[in-house]
Specification:
Helices cover 53% and strands 13% of the residues. The protein is an alpha/beta fold. α7 crosses α10. The radius of gyration is 17 Å and the shape is globular. The termini are far apart.
Length: 210
């Protein structure tokens, strides 16, 4: 039986290209979505073998989606497809439960191999990423402590995307008062006082595309 794939990518052209690549390799793409929230919802319903996730997606980024999929469908292996290869980004992904980390610049060859490896229970890193992890391990470096909670990071992404407090509350299923509390708290933690600074921080953390 063909390996079943959930594909999450907000750029339609990229998503269609990846789909063609996967189906040509013999995999079965059972769902295509454009943001992390849809990815979690589809994984909960369909329980695919593998979820291929773009890092920077609207409403919920790939790392948050990977955590959500891990809870909603524990048997689904997650692969992050991204152009970012900063050490902190890679280590955060591994801690989030990502089983494959594939650079978009190497996706044609690497993605197929990554899927085949993760369904066997292995972890796959693109060659350029492997060196990053080895150097971090050799230097015994740890990820700097994140000052934000998971909920605050979700609020941060939505604000950086231009959502109003009311829209943030609706998307997260909380009251407007609660959404405003999270906004105020994360701004205090980051010592910023305007939305532009939040946007810059979100870009640096890979939560949104510049």
């Amino acid at each position: 039986m063909a390996i079943q794939i959930l594909l999450a990518e907000d750029e339609v052209i990229v998503r269609e290209g990846v789909k063609v690549l996967l189906e040509h390799a013999g995999f079965r793409v059972i769902a295509e979505v454009s943001d992390g929230r849809e990815a979690v919802a589809q994984a909960k319903t369909l329980h695919p073998d593998v979820a291929v996730l773009d890092l920077a997606m609207p409403n919920m980024n790939g790392l948050s989606a990977a955590r959500g999929i891990g809870r909603a469908s524990p048997t689904t292996r997650t692969i992050l497809l991204t152009s970012r290869k900063e050490e902190q980004q890679v280590l955060e992904a591994l801690l989030a439960g990502i089983k494959g980390y594939v650079l978009k610049s190497q996706a044609t060859a690497d993605l197929i191999q990554a899927i085949e490896e993760v369904v066997k229970g292995h972890t796959y890193l693109s060659p350029g990423i492997s060196q990053v992890v080895v150097e971090a391990y050799a230097g015994k470096r740890q990820i700097p402590e994140d000052p934000l909670t998971l909920r605050e990071k979700q609020v941060l992404q939505l604000i950086a995307e231009g959502k109003t407090t009311k829209e943030v509350a609706h998307l997260l299923g909380v009251s407007v008062k609660t959404a405003e509390f999270h906004r105020t708290r994360l701004m205090a933690k980051l010592d910023v006082h305007e939305s532009a600074s939040l946007v810059r921080y979100a870009i640096r953390r890979g939560l949104i595309q510049p």
